């Protein structure tokens, strides 16, 4: 019995395939950001400023879709020896991680949150 050419893939090649798959998943799911459930695209905050939360909610929605792809593919394909099945699992995880960090950055750009450090009590 001979092995298939994709059975002997080096680690470097597998990582490159995973990154390429993550980019492909992001590009495939990015158009779904427009159908994200959003009640009010602009939010009036207590400081008198309107914040447009459409973009962060859209990115969060496609990150959630990639998380669902990861969970479902992990349940279905866990322990599989197939390259494509393992690439689906790893690529969806990488896509979710990247989109999650991108969402944090976009929220910081839109909302400009500030952290206030409370003093410790001395008594």
Keywords:
mainly alpha; 59% helix; elongated
Would you give an account of this structure?
The chain is 59% helix and 5% strand. It has helices spanning 11-29, 54-77, 83-111, and strands at residues 42-44, 50-52. The chain has a two-stranded antiparallel ribbon with strand order 1-2. The N and C termini lie far apart (76 Å).
Helix/strand/pairing category: mainly alpha
Pick out the low-confidence regions: none
| Strand tally | 2
Radius of gyration of CA atoms, rounded to a whole number: 20 Å
Order of helices and strands: HEEHH
State the shape. Answer: elongated
Q: How many strands, which pairing sense, and closed or not: the largest β-sheet?
A: 2 strands, antiparallel
Q: What portion of residues is helical?
A: 55-70%
- Beta-strand fraction estimate: under 5%
- N- and C-termini, Cα separation: 76 Å
Summarize the structure.
The chain is mainly alpha-helical. It contains three helices and two strands.
Give me the secondary-structure topology.
Elements: H1 11-29, E1 42-44, E2 50-52, H2 54-77, H3 83-111
Helix pairs in contact: 1-3, 2-3
